[in-house]
Amino acid sequence: MVAFGSLPAAYAQKRVGSVSLSFQPQANEHVQSALLRNNELVVFSVRVDTKRRQSTLRGYGFDPQGGTLRWSRNLDSVKVDPWLAVAGKGTVAQSFDNAVASGLRGDQAVPLDYQYYLSFSPDAGRILAYVYDYSRKNLLARALLFDGEVGLLHRESLPIDNRTVNHGLGVNQEGDVFILNSNPEGDLQLEVGNLQTAERSLLEVPGGSGARQQFLLQFIPGEAWVMNTVGNAALPQGTMFTRFDLKSKTTVQAEYLPLPESVKAAVADGGGFLELTGCRVNFRKEVSMLLEKRNLLSASYAYQPHAVNNPANWRARKAVVQTGNAAVLTYDTLGVVLDERVIRRNEKVNAEEVPNDFSYAVFPRPGLDQELTTEGRVIRLEARKGTFQLNTYLNSY
Question: Is the whole-model pTM more than 0.90?
């Protein structure tokens, strides 16, 4: 999670505590994620060795009060074989972070086929780590399921269906693993499985008249929710949420939500693309979505928000990251707008400066977007010029 510039005044926070960590990543080691649970901060990193073609997932446990290191160990390691391009093979949706990283120097970013991804259950009692294997005829995701103490429960290679675009894997607090795909026909496909029992189910929603893009996955007890945009890349016509009942393995609801005219007006100028970057579902089954205007400006690269991971695009280039106006929209389960907030901003930063700053929420939920925070206290793992701190903020709503 990368922080671009300062937050707007409406989301100003007051820092009330700061702890420096006794932590310095090695060369070619990149912090990916973190969580705060049971009075311990766990930091996950990826260590890259391109000469030996090896990628290693590392874990570090810290005392959140004093910042001292309690433990560190390798959680997994894979040999990275050469990428194999095959017509019709499953692909992976490109994230904005990877679009930015694709133009950085080799030591500033983790190459595509070396990347580990992490997903946490809502209660942080289950941790899913996975890495894509692009070297085979059919795309695979090598998945590892950990408990909240980072003890390994299970590992398995999961196939990503041909002709599909994968939008990530998720895990709920029961330990079920979810594979979120879409296909060229616009169908939403959510595969549900339990790594320990080998149960598998496929939940599908047929495509509609508008193109569906930017799929995100959330969980509440007994349900899985998928959020996405509908319409063109520059300015979607609306958003959509789909609810799945996990006991009956059925679709409960598929709700299209047209973009409010006030939001369209707020993001109409300035170029770039309006993208769904975050979402959250609360205990009342109200869904909040964060849409942000952003772009990657370069003379030698045209950013496409619906592209898939492609190593051919990874070459050093000069680029500028641009962020514009954003909106937070909250709906009830009938699709009625409960809250509509526009966040006005216009910021630019050179892409090579992005890896120098790191800001990632570890409480109340790992990776929670700043604008979706409703709690009064937020704890973030932050890095400035290689120095890592655990900072506590109070929201000043």
Answer: yes
| Degrees to nearest 5, angle at CA 395 with 349 and 225 | 80
Distance CA 94, CA 286 (A): 28
pLDDT band at 271 (very low <50, low <70, confident <90, very high): confident
List the alpha helices (DSSP H) in the chain. 96-101, 261-266
Tokens of residue 4, six digits: 């671009």
> How many whole angstroms separate alpha carbon 154 and alpha carbon 146?
7
Residue 349 buriedness (CB in 10 A; 0-12 / 13-18 / 19+): middle
Residue 270 has pLDDT above 80, yes or no: no
Query: In this structure, which long-range contacts are made by residues 260-268, counting pairs with CB atoms below 8 Å and at least 24 apart in sequence?
Result: 260/329, 260/337, 260/340, 262/340, 262/342, 263/291, 263/327, 263/329, 263/340, 263/342, 264/235, 266/325, 266/327, 266/342, 266/344, 267/235, 267/291, 267/293, 267/324, 267/325, 267/327, 268/235
* Average pLDDT of the residues in 69-90: 97
d(CA 78, CA 202) in angstroms, rounded, equals 28
**Nearest-CA neighbor of 217 among 208, 209, 225, 228?**
225
Cβ burial 166-187 (10 Å sphere, 16+ → b, else e): bbbbbbbbebbbbbbbbbeebe
